[in-house]
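Hi R.,

As promised on Friday, here is the backbone we talked about, encoded as structure tokens. Could you run it through your design pipeline when you get a chance and send me back a sequence?
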């Protein structure tokens, strides 16, 4: 049949590309150029900017309907819970993580397992929202991923044998890692989960070869950042300048703002972009103020972890909207000038376009049919305060029923069309340049 022949031809073409270059170590340049090399995938988001766009031409809108399955690989029964990983592919091998901090190497030609590694998780891990893992990073001869007991594990990509294991945080305090790390300039960059348990969110960088900590940047105002040189811990500035500016009393000491979905990197501005989660505790009456840097997007210097700029999407978040969804970098033309922009579709129902050089707000507009949590948008949302009276009920009903339909849908950028694509969950995929440039919902 035509369908089967076509499926086999496409599969054979893709697999031939995957093995044609021969095995070699993954370099920094390989990662930066990932979006230009359809024969492999060596970064989460198919490129450091997270655009998730492939230049592969063999598969297109005319023939995609003829694709057929070639093989399937099971991660276990329904007891294994959710599977949210994006696979990496290098030299004909697929590296894919699974629930409960597992990772597999699979032959892409046959679907046969090459090796499997299961992290030895202790009793008492506290993943708030399922036991998922979203992916790994690959660098040199290593594949690296995070675990539910808040560790980074580097394995030999050919054998699956551990090369180093580093503790990122204390799982008994509520920390975990579910996001895919990324490698920038030879450093493993990772965020953490655990905002529901009053942890202090952070972004950290580790030497990819040794696992040594390079820098740490807390994402809650008032906490000191550090760089590590020659075995010495050196202060590198307090996040936000000082404590207690946007938090009452000592609430900043357990402020949440977990970086649980990971980040992206823009080589044009040499910036890491990370989103932060809800502030802690959930009850916003206990913490009047903006509660920086929760429910925000941060631009971070990859060399020392300094915060370049921030943009908060939901001040004093009382609905668990978070601000973790990816910030995707792109350029567009307006009034004869190139705008270096970045876009994100937030769980609060708004789509934002920012200047990625300085974090300035360009425009924002709703992508859902009804926004009930704010009165007006004037560069900063003005919240309907009466809704906070029943915040706990809303959190368990309205928010779960409507907002979370979107929270796992990654944003992508169509290089040919020049527009963002995403699926809120309650409507078909949206892809619209006009909304980005002119800021309206058609």
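Update: got your reply. Pasting your designed sequence below so it's all in one thread:
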């Amino acid at each position: 049949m035509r369908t089967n022949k076509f499926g086999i031809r496409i599969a054979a073409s893709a697999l031939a590309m995957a093995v044609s270059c021969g095995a070699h170590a993954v370099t920094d340049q390989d990662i930066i150029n990932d979006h230009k090399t359809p024969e492999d995938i060596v970064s989460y988001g198919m490129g450091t900017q997270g655009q998730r766009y492939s230049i592969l031409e063999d598969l297109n809108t005319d023939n995609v309907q003829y694709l057929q399955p070639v093989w399937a690989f099971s991660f276990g029964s329904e007891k294994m819970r959710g599977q949210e990983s994006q696979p990496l592919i290098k030299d004909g091998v697929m590296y894919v993580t699974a629930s409960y901090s597992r990772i597999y190497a699979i032959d892409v030609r046959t679907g046969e397992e090459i090796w499997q590694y299961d992290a030895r998780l202790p009793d008492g891990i506290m993943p708030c929202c399922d036991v998922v893992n979203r992916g790994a990073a690959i660098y040199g001869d290593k594949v690296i991923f995070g675990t539910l007991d808040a560790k980074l594990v580097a394995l030999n990509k050919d054998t699956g044998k551990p090369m180093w294991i580093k503790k990122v945080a204390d799982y008994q305090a509520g920390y975990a890692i579910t996001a895919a790390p990324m490698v920038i300039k030879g450093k493993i960059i990772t965020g953490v989960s655990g905002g529901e348990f009053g942890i202090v969110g952070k972004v950290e960088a580790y030497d990819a070869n040794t696992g040594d900590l390079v820098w740490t940047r807390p994402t809650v105002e008032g906490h000191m950042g550090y760089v590590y040189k020659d075995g010495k811990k050196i202060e590198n500035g307090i996040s936000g300048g000082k404590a207690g500016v946007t938090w009452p009393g000592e609430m900043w000491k357990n402020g949440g703002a977990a970086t649980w979905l990971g980040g992206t990197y823009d080589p044009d501005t040499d910036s890491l972009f990370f989103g932060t989660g809800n502030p802690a505790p959930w009850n916003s009456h206990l913490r009047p103020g903006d509660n920086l840097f929760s429910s925000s997007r941060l631009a971070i210097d990859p060399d020392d972890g300094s915060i370049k700029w921030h943009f908060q999407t939901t001040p004093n978040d009382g609905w668990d909207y978070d601000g973790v969804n990816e910030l995707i970098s792109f350029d567009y033309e307006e009034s004869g000038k190139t705008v270096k922009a970045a876009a994100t579709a937030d769980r609060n129902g708004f789509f934002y376009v920012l200047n990625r050089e300085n974090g300035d707000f360009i425009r924002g507009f709703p992508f859902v049919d009804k926004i009930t949590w704010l009165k007006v948008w004037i560069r900063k949302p003005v919240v309907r305060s009466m809704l906070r009276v029943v915040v706990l009920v809303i959190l368990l009903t309205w928010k779960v029923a409507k907002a979370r339909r979107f929270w796992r849908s990654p944003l992508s950028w169509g290089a040919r069309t020049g527009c963002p694509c995403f699926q809120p969950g309650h409507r078909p995929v949206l892809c619209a340049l006009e909304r980005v440039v002119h800021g309206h919902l058609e």
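One thing I noticed while checking it: Residues 2-20 form the longest helix (19 residues).

Thanks again,
M.
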